[in-house]
Amino acid sequence: MKLGSLKATTVRKVLFLGLFLVIALATGGFYLGLQTIRELAVSVTQTAEDATASGQQIEQLRALQTQLAQTRTLVEKADKISVPATGYQSQALNDLSKYAATAGITLTGTDFPQGDNSAEPVRRVKVGISKPVSYTKFLYFLELVESNLPNMQLEGISISRPDAPSADMVNVEDITIKVLTK
After folding, report:
1. Rounded Cα distance, 174 and 162, in Å
2. Are strands 152-156 and 107-111 parallel, antiparallel or unpaired?
3. Where are the domains of the chain?
């Protein structure tokens, strides 16, 4: 075909065919580009969700770490509530002596009865206190004993007025204290 011999209808057909091909290629390219953008959007959304979830997990882990630190203190304190049955005497003697000195009273003796049932998690100690003793100081001593770790509880007590009563002085017979053991 020569250029001069092209007819208008042929040129029009070629131009329509070219225009159709350009429109078809543009539509196909647009569709492929749209698909690629959708895939990227899904990927970005998933990455953003993962980042958010990861951030939440980090916060949860930090909260758990804080909770474990608080729990650790409670566990340590709970462990101090009782003392091993084999070493309770020295622990009780040290604590009672320290509390007596703090309260300003004098201990006259301690006795650890041998008849304690070894199956029980409780041991007893009898404590003698000098007579007469200030009632206020004695109450302070009892408060220190009751708030002790390992746990000690007053089991028996007998208080009376001295023969020559004065101010807040009292006579205290030997007191029995229970010591919680493991």
Report:
1. 15
2. unpaired
3. 3-79, 88-180
